[in-house]
Amino acid sequence: MTDNKIPLLVICGPTASGKTGLSVELAKELGGEVVCADSMQVYADMQIITARVTDEEMQGVPHHLTGFLPLTRSFSVADYVELARPIIEDIHRRGKLPVVCGGTGLYINALLDNIVFEDEQSLPHRRRELEAFAAENGKHALWERLKALDPEAAEKIHENNLIRVVRAIEVCEAQGIPFSEQRRKNLRGDSPYKACVLETGYFDRAELYSRIDRRVDVMLKEGMVDEARRVFEGLDPATAYQAIGYKEMVPYLRGEAPLDECVDKIKQSTRRYAKKQLTWFRKRDDINKVYTSESEERKIFYKKVLEGIAKSEIL
C-alpha cells in the first residue's frame, strides 16, 4: 500500500547541474523544505570548497543536514540515513514536502531503498591507533592491512580514503567478519516513501564540463584558497582529504606546486567525479531525467520538471 507512504521529491544529478537552485525553486512553489544529500556539505568549515548552499541562495527555505559537522568527525551513509529519516518524517508531519537534494548516490540509494544498517559499534581509541599508524607509516601501509583482512573491501576503497579504510578495519576487527560481508548483511525493508526522483543534467556533456570549470573559477574568486588554507593550518590534511577542491590544493599550500596547476587538477577531478555520478544514477530504474541545454529557456525547462512531478502523483 502506498497510501501511508511519505511523499518525497528527490533532486539528484552530477555536480554543477543546477540541483541547488532547482530544489529551492520547487520548495518555494510546492511548500517544501530541503534535506541535503551530499557527503561533504555536511561539514561546517568548507562552505566554498563543497559549494554548500548559502543563506542567500536558500531564499528563506529551511535546509537540513548542511554545515553542521566538524571536520574532525567521520560521517557514514549509516549516519546519514539515521539523521535524514526523522527529519523527513518531521517535515511531512508539519504538512510540508520533503525535498532531498544532492549528488551523493550512496546516500540517496540507502534512503530510498530503506537500507537498514546493522549496529556498527566504533571504538574511538582503536580508530585513533589506526589513524596514528597511517600518519607514521603512510596511508598505503594501512590500506595493506585492510587488504590482508578483506581483499574485496580493499579493492573497492581507495587507499587515500582514510575514513573508510579505518572504518572497514574497525568493522573487520569488531565483528569478526570481513567488512564486505557485513555490508551484504544489511537488510532492505519496504520503503516508507512514495518518491519522485528527478535527475538534472545537460544533453551535451561538454556543457556540463564547461559549467564545472566556470564554477571553480567563481569559487576561487569567492575565497576558496583562503578557506583551504584555514583547514590546512588548523587540522591534519587527512581529515578533509576526500573533498575535491581541498586535496588538490594541498600541494600549493605546502609550496610544492603552483596555484594554476592545482586549479586545473580541481577542474579535472570535478569533471571525473561528475562522470562517476552519472554512472551511479544510471543504475536506478526509477529516475526521471530532466536534462536541459544552455540555449533552452529556463521557463521551458521548469515546465518539464513540474510535468515530471505531476506524473509521479506524489502531491
What does this structure look like?
This protein has 315 residues and is of the alpha/beta class. It has two domains: 238 residues, P-loop containing nucleotide triphosphate hydrolases (Rossmann fold, 3-Layer(aba) Sandwich); 61 residues, Histone, subunit A (Orthogonal Bundle), CATH 1.10.20.140. It has 14 helices and eight strands. Strands 3-2-4-1-7-8 form a six-stranded parallel β-sheet, with helices on both faces. Strands 5-6 form a two-stranded antiparallel ribbon. Strand 2, helix 2 and strand 3 form a beta-alpha-beta unit. It is globular. The relative contact order is 0.16. The model has no long low-confidence stretch (mean pLDDT 90).
